Amino acid sequence: MTETSPLATASDYVGEFRTADEETQLDVVAMQGLPLPLVELRAIDDEGNEIPWDGEAMGELEVRGPWVAAGYYDTPEQAERWTDDGWFKTGDIASFHPKGYVMIKDRSKDVIKSGGEWISSVDLENALMAHPALAEAAVIAIPHEKWDERPLAVCVCREGHTATPDELREFLAPNFAKFWLPDAYVFVDEIPKTAVGKFRKTALREQFPTAPTTP
User: Fold this and answer.
1) In the chain, what are the domain boundaries?
2) Radius of gyration, alpha carbons of the chain
3) Adjacent-strand bridge partners of 64
4) Per CATH, which fold does 112-207 belong to?
5) Residue among 198, 172, 183, 91 at smallest CA distance from 141
6) Does the pLDDT of residue 76 top 60, yes or no?
7) What is the CATH number assigned to the segment(s) 2-107?
8) Lowest CB count within 10 Å: 61, 124, 151, 171, which one?
9) Could you check whether the bond before residue 6 is cis, i.e. omega within 30 degrees of 0?
10) Which of 95, 99, 144 lies closest to 123 in space, CA to CA?
């Protein structure tokens, strides 16, 4: 990211990963790497605590280092992006592998906070788009009276294919905790995108402000 130019992490194999099988090594390079010398990384949860490096806990990624930006020029309203002791709040939600690798899970504005737990919309989207019937899938938060927020999956089927909510739930279930599974699935012809091709989730949240009446 621009604020950490030229870079803050780099990918490499450490320890047993140097001789691991190809699939494991691919999983390693799919992470966002290890911090460079002089760069510090941490992630902070909703309670203001630094998360453990257990590969599971999630928090907002913060970075500090000699070439990390200390502020935005002539933009005092953005000063809250930095802590008093110089940590830059990236806006990314991340976990840390026990070996120190960064795993970016989501953006803070897109992560789903349900019953005190954080659910990665990106992890659910990637899993859904592995389903042979789906071309695209975006996951957003919808309000929930008991759990604050719950996931809603917005799906586009491949031409000539169909899918049902039950099929998609069954497809996701082996790889996610039950509370991660979307409460509802809707099927659309197209997901709105930004100029650079990212899902425009603000538009989806406007289109689906509450849970649909059908499952």
Assistant:
1) 2-107, 112-207
2) 19
3) 40
4) GMP Synthetase; Chain A, domain 3 (3.30.300)
5) 183
6) yes
7) 2.30.38.10
8) 171
9) yes
10) 95
